[in-house]
Amino acid sequence: MNKIEAADYHAIAGVEDPQLSPDGERVAFVQRRPEDEESYAATIHVVPIGGGGPTQFTVSDGVDSEPRWSPDGEYLAFASTRGEGDDREQLWIVPTSGGEARRVTSVVGGVTDLAWSPDGSRLCFTQRVTAADRETGRDRAVDSEYERDEPDPRVIDRMIYRADTAYLDGRRNHVYVLAVETALSNTPEPDGDAITRLTGDGEPAGADVDYVAPTWGDDETIYYAAKTGDEADDSLEYELYEHDLELDAVDAFTETTGWLESIDATADGKVAFEYTPEERASMRQTELRVHDRESGSETTPTEPLDRTIGHRCEFQWGPDGDVLYFSTPDEGSRVVWSVPGDASEEPTAVYGDGVTVESFDVGRNAIAYVQSEWDHPGDVFVTTRGGNETTRLTRVNDEYLADRAVSQPEAVRFESDGAAGQLQGWLLTPPDFDPDETYPLVVEIHGGPHIHWTTAGTMWHEFQTLAARGYVVFWCNPRGSTGYGEDRATAIERDWGAVTLTDVLAGVDAVCERDFVDADDVFVTGGSFGGFMTAWTVGHTDRFRAAVSQRGVYDLTGFYGSTDAFKLLEGDFGTTPWEEPGFLWEQSPVAAVPDVDTPTLVLHSDRDYRTPANTAELFYHGLKKHRVDTRLVRYPREGHELSRSGEPAHVVDRLERIARWFDGYSAHHETPPALERDRDAGLSAQSDEADEDETAGDDTAA
């Protein structure tokens, strides 16, 4: 059996966004895999529920996403970048009985949030556009060769002026409706006559807000929301609207707070949406609320359940319109639940104990979902609506896994000072594990801070790669993690570092009691909040031989002033830099740089606008100033999602650098430290930029 390597990333396919056909006989899903060093191919596949393998439904040209069946099952709509020089996603429609897909939009902002009307005559979508786009009609049709000019100078009026990997530059999200029959008659060069913009002309909240989460009620009703408040970017308040298409009338019918990402509605006017209490919202659990348009009453059917539907969780009405299905983290799993929308009964777990349900879709008789487990990174499954009978529909990585040694993690429970109840973690040993030998230990710390880890999900390849390199890998859900109730999630209030480190070290102590773990050869890494904690750790203990800090937050004040997520600091610490500057400095990893002796590699992305690079630069500068073994690796074109969806060459390069850094300080590897080797020694994924930097002798290069 071959061992898993970092470069295997190029051979691993991912699946996402399963969608049941209206007749319940097929599931459409997106299959995504690296295409070359810089890009991915993503195509839509369809697999029958009754047996037989999946077939590719769209051509391999660009990146396809959001497959959506028409209500009668005759068409499949999807977004795609095919044929677009600037990666703008356009709306395509393909007959499910066979035939060519037809592009039905050519809009300037790209399309997302696709949804069919119940009668199949229309599709709604959103796109991000400027006032000039709306005034000139580019939001309805634009030449495919059109390129948006970069502002020079860039004039900024918003608090949140960049997100993901791009500056917003005046673009706002708006809701549109496309008449399907008209659009199909206007191909292959859509002229925009089939498109109507619903938002931005005066009511409901004007043009200078973002309208989000459109969903259909009946054939003539669309619901959506907009963030409101005197300064919307500084607000957690959303207003929900009902848009009557026949009358072109808009009614604001309720409000919510938190981070609203989805709305789902029934034909008889029951509207489900997310609600997070505004006070200390970043630590609080997100609930589901249901507004009944007929009675005006509201219920919170998830209230009896001490779990959150935040962070990559979903919800959806069942086909009868009476029961809601939703997912939550739950003690190392991601579980699907059901609950009556009127809150007449408490939530019931449907499926997911011991596995990770990534996304799901509810049909009349079944639930389709993507599930990852310890032995595979993800496939499409179906289960009954009661979760009693489960069938695996795809095995997209079987050929790759056939000759790969995959290790099975062991669940670990341990105590920690100050924590109520045991904490949960996992231990992964090398594939050729010998209990009579000893192995170095890598400790992985998750991001968030309010997320949770499982035995699978997005970390599958990284954990297996490190184990295959001869390391025992340990990860856990310390206090602050979700999936264990709100009290545990809020236990790190105003104290990210000390509380989390107490729990992580307790877990390290527990696993180091194993005879096969070399307690003197221990390493630590993590990304985002895990990067914060890695930096905090090396400033407060010398327990670790070396560290790799990734896409972290290192100075809370610098983070607050540069991120699009400053509400996280306000919620978790209950303050701002102007109120308690000294306190925030003490709570920042850079404050302890003079105490760092641990060799620390710092990885960051140039376009990470969630945890911008300015605080990583400060941390790296401090390490160099205090003569700590360090190196700063900057990845061009990448954002905060580098480890999950960055350019394939960069994803591989990152993993190899982590392992190489640890190898150089491990007593179990006869390898010099990375700083003593040629810059590209042991690396298979050198980018052109890194090679150029190496020639120039730039100390900040990879």
From TrEMBL:
Lineage: Archaea, Methanobacteriati, Methanobacteriota, Stenosarchaea group, Halobacteria
GO terms, biological process: proteolysis
Protein name, as recorded: Peptidase S9 prolyl oligopeptidase active site domain protein
Residue spans of biased composition, Acidic residues class: 688-702
InterPro entries: 6-blade_b-propeller_TolB-like, AB_hydrolase_fold, Peptidase_S9_cat, WD40
Region annotation Disordered: where it falls in the sequence: 282-306, 669-702
Molecular-function GO term, any one: serine-type endopeptidase activity
Residue intervals of the Peptidase S9 prolyl oligopeptidase catalytic domain: 461-666
Record PANTHER family: ACYLAMINO-ACID-RELEASING ENZYME, SERINE PEPTIDASE S9 FAMILY MEMBER
Alphabetic keyword roster: Hydrolase, Protease, Serine protease
Compositionally skewed regions (Basic and acidic residues) per UniProt: 282-296, 669-681
Species of the source: Natrinema gari JCM 14663
Family from the record: Belongs to the peptidase S9C family.
